[in-house]
Amino acid sequence: MDKRTMISIVDDDESVRDATANLMRAAGYTPQAFPHARAFLESSHVSDTDILIADVQMPGMSGLELHDALLDAGKHIPTLLITAYPDERMRSRALHAGVIGYLTKPFNESELLDTIQSVLRSVKTRSIEQ
């Protein structure tokens, strides 16, 4: 039996965190929610996370800084950034850094789920090819 896909959600806005976790659960994923980047980094879930959804602007460490910290630590977790304050320069920087998507809050649920499915398909395809 396949393990359920773990989606970690890092957002300082509790309502967004809860709504995103509920959406992931309804779609059949296993969500883990964290109020800030440090809580995620200090958790035991970093190595279990298949996809990371992180807010761009958070106190302490931004979503892009979290993505960079994970890469620096050798953790290549597909990361999707969400933001209530879209900025084309930040979007470009994030995508150039390897972030898989950059969605504006409130985001379209089907767009979020489609992005996750696309990532999971590409990961599965790569593992089959290896």
Explain what you see.
The protein is an alpha/beta fold and about 130 residues long. The chain has a single domain, classed as Rossmann fold, CATH 3.40.50. The protein contains five helices and five strands, in the order E-H-E-H-E-H-E-H-E-H. The protein has a five-stranded parallel sheet with strand order 2-1-3-4-5, with helices on both faces. Helix 3 links the parallel strand 3 (about 50-55) and strand 4. The longest helix is centred in the C-terminal third of the chain and has 21 residues, at about 110-130. The mean pLDDT is about 90. This is Response regulator. It holds the Pfam family Response_reg. It comes from Hyphomicrobium album. Keywords: Phosphoprotein. InterPro entries: Bact_response_regulator, CheY-like_superfamily, Sig_transdc_resp-reg_receiver.
What key attributes describe this structure?
single chain; 130 residues; alpha/beta; Rossmann fold; 5 helices
List the SSEs and their pairings.
Elements: E1 6-10, H1 14-26, E2 30-34, H2 37-41, E3 51-55, H3 63-72, E4 79-83, H4 88-96, E5 101-104, H5 109-129
Parallel strand pairs: 1-2, 1-3, 3-4, 4-5
Protein name: Response regulator
Modified residues (4-aspartylphosphate): 55
Keywords: Phosphoprotein
Main sheet strand line-up: 2-1-3-4-5
Q: How large is the share of residues in beta strands?
A: 15-25%
Number of domains: 1
Q: Which term fits the overall shape?
A: globular
